[in-house]
Amino acid sequence: MHKSLLRGGPVSSHLGRTKPATVGLVPGQRDHRLDFFRGLALVMIFINHVPGTVYEYATNRNFGFSDAAEAFVFMSGLAAGLAYSSAFAPGNNLWLAVSRPWARARYLYFVHLSITVICLAIVAFAARYFDLAELLTKNNIKALFADPLSTMIGIPLLTHQLGYLNILPLYAVLLVSTPAIILLGRKFPYWVLAGSILLWVIAGQFRLNLPNFPNSGGWFFNPFSWQLLFVIGVLSGMAMKQGKQFIPAHPVAFVLALAYLIATIVVMKYPPAGEAFRAGLSAISKMGAPFYITWFDKTFLSLPRLLHALAVFYVFASIPQMRVIASSRLAAPLRIMGRQGLAVFATGTVLSIALQAVKAWLSKEGITDTVLIDGLMLGSGIFALWLLAYVLTRTVDMRRAQSQTKTP
Question: What backbone torsions phi and psi does residue 253 show, to the nearest 5 degrees?
Answer without folding.
Answer: -65, -40
